[in-house]
Amino acid sequence: MMWYFEYSDVKRRMVVHIVDSVVGIMDFDRQMIEYLSKLKIDFIVVANKIDKLKKNERKNQLDEIQKGCDGKEILVYSTITNEGRNKLLDLIFRSV
User: Fold this and answer.
1) Residues 42-66: pLDDT tens digits?
2) Across the chain, what does the average pLDDT equal?
3) Percent of the chain as helix, strand, coil, to the nearest 5
4) What are the helix (H) ranges across the chain?
5) How far is residue 14's CA from residue 36's CA, in Å, rounded to a whole number?
6) Do 16 and 43 contact (CB within 8 A), yes or no?
7) CATH assignment of the domain containing 89
8) Count: domains in the chain
9) Three-state SS for 79?
10) Does residue 36 lie in a domain region?
11) d(CA 16, CA 46)
12) C-beta of residue 25 within 8 angstroms of C-beta of residue 70
């Protein structure tokens, strides 16, 4: 997949990197964020499954995810409750 970002002729507007908010940020997520930043590719980080976290877990998990996200804003998202849906769609449509 990495070849796509460096060698493809397709014009990229933005990458949506999805992190499982229950699992938290993994080494692969950190590597991908570093890679996208290095290539100066515009991206957003979406913490999905946010509805599965209890209120007291939510802040801690999001803080941990934020630490590994190179200063990027984290967008929370839930397909169950639609939390974050409008903001995500807005960001995607603005990048087109």
Assistant:
1) 899 999 999 999 988 999 999 999 9
2) 89
3) 45, 15, 40
4) 2-7, 27-38, 55-67, 85-95
5) 10
6) yes
7) 3.40.50.300
8) 1
9) coil
10) yes
11) 7
12) no
